[in-house]
Specification:
By secondary structure, the protein is of the alpha+beta class. The protein has 11 helices and 21 strands. The strands form 5 sheets. Strands 1, 2, 3, 4, 5, 8 and 9 form a 7-stranded mixed beta sheet that branches. It is globular.
Length: 479
């Protein structure tokens, strides 16, 4: 059906707004209590955060489990914590495996520090994670007053940790891993999702494989299977790096981009690039250069070349665009509100950018290949959702549906209807193939669906089973 099957990488879901009580991959039991409901010293700090640019530490909470608490970027209140929750929740809604992410309020006396802890920096240098280091983390994050601070809580993944997966090749130790990761549509198509959110740090370091044993009490036992997770979206919504010139290039060029360097040398830097026009919006500096002004989903790039992204095809990108189209404006607004912004204007700023970036993605990828998806067949009627019409990629009066049925070599036009939810339905005419096997080629019917726009038609392949109706067996998106 030109879709991605459920697997240890991805699970198809009905895309809706987030759950009110538990965002993303969290359930109600995962949600951490407010400070007034926590006894002094109840949260035990049992590990510092070893690497990465974000400060943090791990807590072990009785009855809840382990959580990594991470600080906001210094001088940019709320952005990183909000981006982590919003980004992870959107990845989860689409079908990827993510960690449970939530925003928490912490008071210093809630924490008990386990003695003798050390952390390892990116440079390899080891130093103690003591009371002073803990206080430094708490001072660096968003201050709420009255001794309270805002942090992001990432629940520790279940199972036995194996380490990050790669966006190419397969795992030698996993018999289930038989498709080159760079050829997996869910990973290739995730380039468009990363572009929507500005997830420039989409690389293997922000992923994780875990072994889930059938016997949950013995994490290293067999049988079991490997589950693949996407982690850490704190870079979305405008995270910057140390060099301002590099921050301006986020989403437009790789860290070291030979093509752009060569072009600049050839033209002596005379050609204007999108990063030359990038600027901070007054009053919204915390969001860095996150914008829709020069956003081009076709050109968007992460900070590092990603093998799966580089192999993404038109069909891969269009698949993800249909997923993104399923988010209504009301859905997007609800996901943005998961950021728990102190200022309503911050939520409105992020919402407006995401909506415009969504519009550009849909206009690019739903106007070439057919935008019809979610195909079903019931009691002889075949239906599909036109995701371009659903989001009015072009004016509604442009959508005119024609269905041509070919069976026994004869073309017949079939009447189609469309409802207010852009659900296109039609009833194919029986071809009366006679008393032949279900698999006989004479039962084959091809239904070509045009939607009246520049998009190519969708060909739905079905078997005419007589009184049992039409069974859809596949689709072709013509180029």
């Amino acid at each position: 059906m030109d879709e991605v099957p459920d697997s240890a990488w991805f699970t198809n879901k009905k895309i809706t707004g987030p759950e009110d009580k538990a965002p993303g991959a969290c359930d109600e039991n995962d949600m951490l209590p407010a400070p007034d409901d926590v006894k002094p010293g109840e949260w035990v700090v049992d590990h510092g955060k070893d690497n990465g640019s974000t400060l943090g530490f791990r807590v072990n909470i009785k009855g809840k489990g382990k959580y990594m608490l991470k600080a906001d970027d210094k001088g940019k209140p709320e952005r990183a914590t909000a981006a982590s929750v919003i980004g992870a929740s959107l990845y989860d809604a689409i079908g990827f495996n993510t960690s449970c992410e939530q925003i928490v309020t912490v008071r210093r006396d809630m924490l008990t520090l386990k003695p003798g802890l050390v952390v390892v920096e990116n440079s390899g240098i080891t130093h103690p994670f003591d009371e002073a280091a803990l206080d430094n983390v708490l001072k660096s994050t968003t201050q709420l007053g009255n001794g309270l601070v805002r942090m992001q809580a990432s629940k520790w993944l279940p199972g036995y940790t194996l380490g990050p997966f790669r966006y190419i090749h397969t795992r030698d130790d996993d018999p289930n891993d038989v498709i080159d990761h760079a050829n997996r549509r869910e990973l290739r198509g995730s380039r468009v999702l990363a572009a929507w959110l500005g997830h420039w740090d989409a690389r293997e370091q922000n992923s994780m494989d875990v072994w889930l044993a059938v016997d949950k009490d013995k994490k290293k036992s067999s049988p079991g299977f490997v589950k693949h997770y996407i982690l850490d979206t704190s870079d979305t919504l405008g995270e910057e790096v140390t060099l301002d010139d590099m921050s301006r290039r986020m989403g437009y060029a790789y860290e070291f981009d030979v093509k752009d360097i060569g072009k600049a040398l050839l033209l002596f830097g005379a050609d204007e690039q999108p990063w030359d026009r990038a600027h901070h919006v007054k009053g919204e500096e915390k969001f860095g250069y996150f914008s829709a002004a020069d956003f081009d989903p076709e050109r968007w790039r992460p900070f590092y070349p990603n093998p799966a992204f580089l192999r993404a095809t038109e069909r891969d990108n269009a698949w993800m665009a249909r997923k993104i189209a399923a988010f209504s404006p009301e859905d997007v607004r609800k996901y943005v509100e998961l950021g728990k912004w102190a200022k309503p204007s911050d939520a409105e700023y992020v919402y407006n950018i995401l909506m415009e970036r969504q519009r550009r993605i849909l206009r690019r990828y739903l106007t070439k290949l057919s935008p019809l998806g979610d195909i079903t067949s019931d009691q002889g009627q075949i239906c599909a959702t036109d995701f371009a019409r659903l989001r009015e990629v072009v004016p509604l009066d442009r959508y005119k549906y024609t269905v041509i049925e070919r069976g026994y070599g004869v073309d017949t036009e079939v009447r189609a209807t469309v409802d207010d939810h852009s659900r296109v339905c039609f009833i194919p005419q029986p071809t009366n193939p006679g008393n032949v096997a279900d698999s006989d080629h004479r039962r084959r019917v091809d239904l070509t669906v045009f939607n009246g726009t520049s998009a190519k038609p969708l060909v739905i392949h079905a078997n005419d089973l007589g009184a049992r109706g039409m069974k859809v067996v596949g689709v072709t998106r013509t180029h």
